Amino acid sequence: xxxxxxxTQQRISAEERRAAVLAAAITEFARNGLAGSSTExxxxxxxxxxxxxxxLFGTKRxxxxxxxxxxxxxxxxxxxxxxxxxxxxxxxxxDAAYRELLKQRDDQLLLLQAYAACxxxxxxxxxxxxxxxxxxxxLAATEGDLATARRWYARCLLQSIGAVLDxxxxxx
Length: 172
Known about the structure:
By secondary structure, the protein is mainly α.
C-alpha cells in the first residue's frame, strides 16, 4: 500500500468530523456555557483547526445551537422509542427512559446552559421553538392530555436539576 492510499484510508468524512466537533462542543458548552466556552478548546479537543470549525458551523452560536440540537434530537428519539414500545403506559415508559438520559451529565448540563443562554435573542428563539416541538411530542404521546404532558415535562426538568446537582431526592 502506498502513502497516498494510507492517507486516504485514514481520513475521516466531513460528517464524522462534524460529529467529533459536536461531541467536543457538548462537553465544553456543558461545562462553560455559550459565553464562557472556547472554540479553540473545542477544535483542539476534536482534532481539527479552529478555521475548519468555523467552516463547518459558521459561528460559535451556531455551534452551540447544533450541540443543543444534537442533545435534543437524541433525547426525543429515546423518548419516542420508549412511548412507542409501551402504548399502554407511554408516560411510565418515558419516565424510565428519561431516568436513563439523566446519566448523560454533559447532555443535562447543556440543556440547562441552553436555558441560561436565552438572554441572547437568537438562542431564545431557537430553544423556544425546539422545546415547543419536544413538548408537542410529549403531548401526543400522552394522547393530548395537557395536564399530564405539563406534569411530565415539569418532573423531567426537576429531575435534570437534581441530576446535575447530585440531589437524588429530586429524581425519585
